[in-house]
Every structure is written in structure tokens, then in C-alpha cells.
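PROTEIN DATA CARD
Card holder: Cytochrome c oxidase subunit 7A1, mitochondrial
Chain length: 81
Origin: Zoarces viviparus
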Amino acid sequence: MNQLLKVPVLASRAFSSSARQLRNKVPEAQKIFQEDNGLPVHIKGGTFDVVLYRATMTLTLGGTCYSLYWLLFASMPQRKA
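Structure generated from the sequence above:
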């Protein structure tokens, strides 16, 4: 019975480690993303966000063109040899 009384104490120690405290970065991110600088929100994160956005748009447009090409190719009648 004595061991069952120790379970809540041990559980609280396991989840409240004082060895490493994480810093809350949310206010800094809010400051960056709520700033009124005329940029869309998906580009406000910096260079990495711009590169990721452009790569996504390039792959999207490339895939759309590739799909349209094969739709056009499939819609053409077959030539009899």
C-alpha cells in the first residue's frame, strides 16, 4: 500500500524535470508574424520560407503542365500504322 502512495510523487517528478527549462519562443514569433510590413504570412518567416514557397509553386506548376500534356496526348486519336 505504501508503494501506491508514492506513485503520484514519482509521476510528478518525471514530468517536472528541472534539469532543462525551455524558453517560450511564441511571443517572438507572434511579433514577427503580426508585423505590418506588406508581406504575406507565408513569406514572413525569412529566406527559408521564400525558398520553400518558390519550390512548392515550381513543383505545382510543373506538375500541372505535365498533367495537361499527358491529358492532351491521351485525347489525340491513335495513328494506324
